[in-house]
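User: My advisor asked me to double-check a structure prediction for Retropepsin-like domain-containing protein before group meeting. I don't want to rely on an old file, so could you generate it fresh from this sequence?
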Amino acid sequence: MVELGSISLDGVRKDALKAVRLEPRADGVKLAGIVGLDVFGDRTVDFDLPNKRIVLLAPSTLPRDLRSKPIEAKPTTGNLLTVPVTIGTVKATAVIDTGARKTRINWALGRELGLDPAKLNKGDTIHGATNVTVETGTTRVADIQLGDRRLAEAPVLVADLPVFAAFGVDDRAAIILGLDWLDRTRMVIDFPGRRVWFEDTNP
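Assistant: Sure, here is a fresh prediction for Retropepsin-like domain-containing protein from the sequence you gave:
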């Protein structure tokens, strides 16, 4: 653990934060760090992914131009939020992890979707924060429903990653929702109110 001075993000300043210092990533990706809920967990955060824009709003304040109804979210271990998602006729729990570049599903969900491990293409080798490598399979899934947002199809990596247990969702069909599902989506999260909006940026 290390103690930081202050962090400012979109006008929100937090002082005397403590952070976990990690070893350099085994895959060579250079990141200065990860901004967490201790910085923005008391805010409404407007993630406009297509325009690469993020806005932090005051607690209980919402953008005025939201068109859809909110999804009620539930907290995970570690206080990330989960929302229900449907793939075809299969229901699953999706963990919102804005640090995940690619969407991952566990084999509990993979089996319900009828996936065959022998027929999957080789996916990424995932290192994670612990730098322990896990091999994944990759495929595409269709007919995805996230609240009012529908995706015709999207890619997934398939593996029983340790992060599913860390978030307390390894006992069910679960998804770590990555940015690859949100490239044409505006995601607004009211963290204190545990509400989430997914909106198509090209209605």
